[in-house]
Amino acid sequence: MIEPLVSPRPIAPSQPVDARRSGREELALYAGSIALAAIVKRSGTPLFVLDPDRIAERFAYFGELLPFARLRYALAALPHPAVIRTIAAAGGGFDVVSTGELAMLAHEEVPASAAVYSHPIKRPAAIAAAAAAGVRLFVADNPAEVRKFLGVDASVRLLIRVHFDGDGASFGVDAAHAMNLARFAVNNGIRVAGFSVHVDADRMSPRRLEQVLRETLRLIDEGNARWRLGADTLDLGGGLPAEHEAGDARLRALAAAAARVLEPRAPALTVLAALGRCVAAPAMLLATRVVGQATRDGAVWHYLDDGMHGSFAGLRDAASAPAMFSLRELLEPGDVPPPALYPCTVAGASTDGLDVIARDLPLPSLGIDDVLLCPNLGAYSLVLASNFEAVRRTRVHVLHSRRAAQRSGAVDAL
Amino acid sequence: MIEPLVSPRPIAPSQPVDARRSGREELALYAGSIALAAIVKRSGTPLFVLDPDRIAERFAYFGELLPFARLRYALAALPHPAVIRTIAAAGGGFDVVSTGELAMLAHEEVPASAAVYSHPIKRPAAIAAAAAAGVRLFVADNPAEVRKFLGVDASVRLLIRVHFDGDGASFGVDAAHAMNLARFAVNNGIRVAGFSVHVDADRMSPRRLEQVLRETLRLIDEGNARWRLGADTLDLGGGLPAEHEAGDARLRALAAAAARVLEPRAPALTVLAALGRCVAAPAMLLATRVVGQATRDGAVWHYLDDGMHGSFAGLRDAASAPAMFSLRELLEPGDVPPPALYPCTVAGASTDGLDVIARDLPLPSLGIDDVLLCPNLGAYSLVLASNFEAVRRTRVHVLHSRRAAQRSGAVDAL
């Protein structure tokens, strides 16, 4: 009498399913090492599990990859106190874009001198407050913004943000006008530290990065020789890729390109690099639960207790389905073969018809109350969530750092 | 030396500019009546200005339009205490989708019996809590969900949510299986109140609405005659259009179609209708300030102190530019001709390159610190905002109700 639950045929093993298998093994090992099942049982769902050690490891990895650069953590990706403390303990600097982010640093007793204020557009009151707190490096990209620094503390310096391929871009002065803007600042008694250029990991090839960095260096050199800018800093900006599998091939190629241009200039040149997504993403996973199931037009739908208005909000821009594993499949002994996978629609917690997380996602057989785990969800997840439909944002469970005892150190003042 | 600010040619008067002119006159009158300039001066920006009288007016208007229906306000659009109090005072019911929304009603001392819990997917704990609080009407659309009502208070009744054109829809049992689902409930001792169908204002013609309502009535009649459902309720769901200009032609046509089918059945049939966007949208305007300006690729950019991660978050789905007026142009005496308009790019407060609110929007000449006003921003704005980049959500200034003294009344228990 009731429409039977359709039993779709399992997905045949294929490339993406093989990739899922290795991801599953990695996650199963990790879940065991942090006793994830017990955490979820104790704290319920939805739940983020944040691992400060992964922040530290990832930050150290970038230190090896970019030994010529002073690394800053860009708070926007995941401005969590535990992350701030971990970066500070590792000697990292910070990249902030708002008064609120500066307040978070102050709350963790990180000196403002460790931060670059990188938002190119600021209210004068925000500049005054940041300068008074001790920020010494700001970013600007247009004359109206440079004028806001007239009369600000004379030890403050500007990085001029430049773009080289920026048709329709929201920020950056085009390279042809960058020198004019730097000269405008200096002629008005505002100091220029150098130039800032953003790596757009999605679009920039290593070869193009090399060109762009050479052109930025040329701006610094010409500015110093011809216009007495006194520039000593090149800011690589943010935007490095987040992937951390397969040897980070793309990331390594970008880093090598930067090294070819910038290492020969050390130590006379200060190179800055902001890390956001690439440090935060692998440090947090989401545990979410199946709370409802239905068969619609022959497709199996799983409804979760989190969604596109919550912890998956970052997917709206990324347009790619997240990896999902059931806690139950991870708890199987290692010698049990992987479960059969079925194509499913996974929907979020709200009544919004657009709150669909993924369609045709391969998942094992699931029941109501099964817990799903989504790794690599540390960046642009929590921070983009709203309280839509009066649902609270997902809580964060912070793992005890297994390394904290070994770490100490001052914060790198930029 | 500095790149000159481009002076684009004013936009020639045309149809959209004429529409802007009438909108400007209406807003200027309204701004004068509520002393908007003084509010903005006192409270700063960004600021929402919420007018409970507009909620009451709009709710009363729908009462005239749908005299055969009991109206519920769907909290999801704008779950503000002042809105809840206004609807309750007008005798309206409520449509809730979460434990959090029920708590907001309780906080305003609205009895839970005035609410329909319309989310088709719920955790058993949410059902138990809502039933214990006094909710008597719930929505379900699949067998797994109906089963969750086994053992719940016997006075609780279900609305079966149906869809008639729902390929790929996230909710609703297709019409061919709706009777089976209702019988499954009744056979298990769970009472069925009737059927629920959502008006999709963007896609549904009045003619199609009429068909859909006739089919829903047929489900009720056949269910009662053949399967002893005991159904007495047809739920129109939400989704009515929000426009309120030009006599609401589309809205009136939909209401007339519903009346043709449903009025002949009064008073033996309880008709419910949920109002969200259409009540909330016109009741709130946003005041936001120009904090930065730049010329990029020949286009003038205005950067605001609010944006797509804040109060404009609802635009992400709507994909239409909001109307924007400068406070300065509204304060001009009525006999001053409208200002020349220029095409501008309007960008938000974050460093996200996707945070562009509108391109080629016709705006008068603006300077830094000019305040822009965006009317009709009451629905799906505040509720979709995040705290991205540690920026607080926009505050809400609630106008004193000029009508409150005349209003009183009990809440309509559904």
TrEMBL record, chains A, B:
Protein known as: Ornithine decarboxylase
Key word Acyltransferase present: no
GO cellular component, one term: cytoplasm
SUPFAM superfamilies the UniProt entry points to: Alanine racemase C-terminal domain-like, PLP-binding barrel
A single GO molecular function term of this UniProt record: ornithine decarboxylase activity
Residues of the Orn/DAP/Arg decarboxylase 2 N-terminal domain: 54-280
Gene Ontology biological-process entries: putrescine biosynthetic process from arginine, via ornithine
InterPro entries, sorted: Ala_racemase/Decarboxylase_C, De-COase2_N, Orn/DAP/Arg_de-COase, Orn_de-COase, PLP-binding_barrel
Family per similarity comment: Belongs to the Orn/Lys/Arg decarboxylase class-II family.
Keyword annotations: Lyase, Pyridoxal phosphate
Essential cofactor(s): pyridoxal 5'-phosphate
Top-rank lineage group of the source organism: Bacteria
Species annotation: Microterricola viridarii
Signal peptide range: none
